Automatic annotation (TrEMBL):
Signal sequence extent: none
Name listed for the protein in its UniProt record: Lysophospholipid acyltransferase 1 isoform X1
Subcellular location: Endoplasmic reticulum membrane
Organism: Erinaceus europaeus
Domain of life: Eukaryota
Keyword annotations: Acyltransferase, Endoplasmic reticulum, Membrane, Transferase, Transmembrane, Transmembrane helix
Gene: MBOAT1
Pfam families: MBOAT
Single annotated GO MF: acyltransferase activity
Amino acid sequence: MADEPPASLSYRTTGSTCLHPLSELLGIPLDQVNFVACQLFALFAAFWFRIYLNPRKTSPEIRHAFATIFGIYFVIFCFGWYSVHLFVLVLMCYGVMVTTSTSNIHRYSFFVAMGYLTLCHISRIYIFHYGILTTDFSGPLMIVTQKITTLAFQLHDGLGQRVEDLSAEQYRLAIKVKPSLLEYLSYLLNFMSVIAGPCNNFKDYVAFIEGRHTQMKLLEVKWKLKGFHSVPEPSPTGAVIHKLCMTLVSLLLFLTLTRTFPVTCLVDDQFVHRANFLTRLCYLYIVMQASKPKYYFAWTLADAVNNAAGFGFSGVDKNGNSCWDLLSNLNIWNIETATSFKMYLENWNIQTATWLKRVCYERVPWYPTVLTFILSALWHGVYPGYYFTFLTGIFVTLAARKVRSNYRHYFLSSKVLKFVYDVVTWVVTQLAVSYTIAPFVMLAVEPTISLYKSMYFYLHIISLLIILFLPIKPQAHIQSQPQILKSVKRKTD
């Protein structure tokens, strides 16, 4: 693992230094203090935005302008002159959008955005050297890259594709008019998502700014309120309070578990040689669990900020209760109880998984799973640990599919067998995920190889044997997702 940064570097940042006394008092790096301060300020700004700049009494242009100005200020506060990278990428891709033909807008935007992001990732290796991630401007850059490419593909679907060539979802999200500069900047740089995301669809964002978001989502789920001339606007207060409570718990876990179980112990020579394999495997699971709360904290807080502004409403459940999970990036319960690798991935970093599906998995003609994992690794960065994780993930995913298709149906005949199957697959899934994501946390080659050698490369070997020798049983009754989407009859607007 890379050496820990010197204490004197722990508080360096190219952003604002006005909170340096607080940083020293808490013993937390200044860049992290700036991040939390911006998100908390964004939370209060979101409530103000929803109440005082309500779309019923404020024009969309004013809402766009305020959301953009606040977002730009937050970026400069957190990252200082490094925020130039964000603004350069946004303006470059706006130039691509307005000058490129609709038949190529998605290709050029994708290569420009991913190319610039990759160059910035490469520069981080030489500037920040693995673990020293102070003033890590790549986070907002990654979110903006997702939004730029999402917008470009949806413009291509709306302006450069025939209706019959689109899936039902692509048709629903297609954009038929290029956004203005103000709309474009607001979508990419708004204060609700510029620091920590999540990515969202342009149509949803514009509907939120214009005050159509709630009714649009209610109509999508075919919700009918008889006797009302208009749909009452649901309040996000309950959802925000619930998510803030989850954020607080995640923060407490981060400040305790993460520091108590450092990842460096996994490759400590004394631990590796004294502990048996089962002990090392269990400790690997504990360490990986301890690394999650920081993601739970950041993503749940970002979700709460958007909800506080009135964005993120997804409809109503069967009991008529409002749901505010349109922008949620994770489902903690489903993650911790996942009984398959697929279920785990579907509930972790949900918006990124959705982005990968829409710009890669559904569109590439060959090896969609492999290319999607490669794109995910490239988007995350160029640290070797990312590629170890995602290449391992390819093997695990393919092996898990074969095991499931061959054996799952044997355990569905009774509740007892199904319970046994769920328990066994939960244990296997959690250990497999811990094994797979360990390099993602370690980043470097040497500790990754050291860890996998201490584990005898057991998951790589098992996955490879399953892929090579276990046949896939055909399931003719299950229609593939692309076929399902293609078969849905589209409706006019």
